[in-house]
Amino acid sequence: MTPSTERAPGTSHRAAPEHANLDEVRLETALLALADPVRQTLVRALAEAGDWERPCGSFDVPVTKATLSRHFAVLREAGLLEQRDAGPRRLNRLRRPEFDARFPGLLALVLAD
Amino acid sequence: MTPSTERAPGTSHRAAPEHANLDEVRLETALLALADPVRQTLVRALAEAGDWERPCGSFDVPVTKATLSRHFAVLREAGLLEQRDAGPRRLNRLRRPEFDARFPGLLALVLAD
DNA sequence: TAGGGTGTTCGCCGACGAGCGAACACCCTG
DNA sequence: CAGGGTGTTCGCTCGTCGGCGAACACCCTA
């Protein structure tokens, strides 16, 4: 009698990553998240790719996977990233409409740079 | 025969502060400058005041004048601030149109926050 | 010209963030 | 069920940044 624990094929038992509530994200958090050049690279790559297309390890950035994992956490906390587990991989989606609604024009500046 | 060294009354001989060329300001520099809460306070106060209205010492921020001076330098380097000496004081102007042209919408986000 | 007001510069300190390797957890396939 | 692949967490180091006081430079007025 725990139907909520059932899962679709390919779904994970891992603890789902916590995603930020955009209303609670402070401007300072967003600016700091987007100021880092590695995170800018990730955001631009995500914008060019489709949703849920790219797993964490598929980005060409000059850092180890430990550092990369931390960068993804920062982007999540800033409301820029949504993650979903698919088997052993963690797929990513840029939360563009939500983020644009909260901070209009900010993401566009990074993508245009 | 050095007419360029003449000066209007109230004008200073002090070395004028260097102002950034907006074209050369990187997005990262602008984001980092605007991410600091003290600098956000300064920018908002400058936006409410008129150009050349407020000297450096007239802002209500909880830092010493040494730290404040450093914050102004950061804002200058980010292309957000223009300064002019008037007697013993240094008056400030928010470079809003220039900055808006270089980073559309960014300043508005800070002012609206 | 002496002095008070304004702002900058110089060291120094403490906090924070990005970086790494190692260890761990989880998933899928052989 | 053993192992390779993927990603996170932990502890640590190091550089950068914000903060301060002290000293200095400059301007105006008494």
The name of the CATH topology of chain A is Arc Repressor Mutant, subunit A
Radius of gyration of CA atoms of chain A, rounded to a whole number? 15 Å
Largest sheet of chain A: 3 strands, antiparallel
Number of structural domains of chain A: 1
Whole-Å distance between the termini of chain A? 53 Å
Helix content of chain A: 40-55%
Number of distinct helices of chain A = 5
Q: Which chains have the largest interface?
A: A-B, 17 and 17 residues
User: CATH homologous superfamily name of chain A?
Assistant: Winged helix-like DNA-binding domain superfamily/Winged helix DNA-binding domain
Describe the structure.
Chain A has 113 residues and is α+β, with helices and mostly antiparallel strands. Chain A has a single domain (29-112), classed as Winged helix-like DNA-binding domain superfamily/Winged helix DNA-binding domain (Arc Repressor Mutant, subunit A, Orthogonal Bundle), CATH 1.10.10.10. Chain A has 5 helices and 3 strands; from the N terminus they run H-H-E-H-E-E-H-H. Chain A has a 3-stranded antiparallel β-sheet. The radius of gyration of chain A is 15 Å and the shape is globular. Chain A starts with 26 loop residues before the first helix and ends with a helix. Mean pLDDT of chain A is 90; it is low at 1-12. Chains A and B meet through helix 1 and helix 5 of A and helix 1 and helix 5 of B. Chain A binds a DNA duplex (30 and 30 nucleotides) through helix 3.
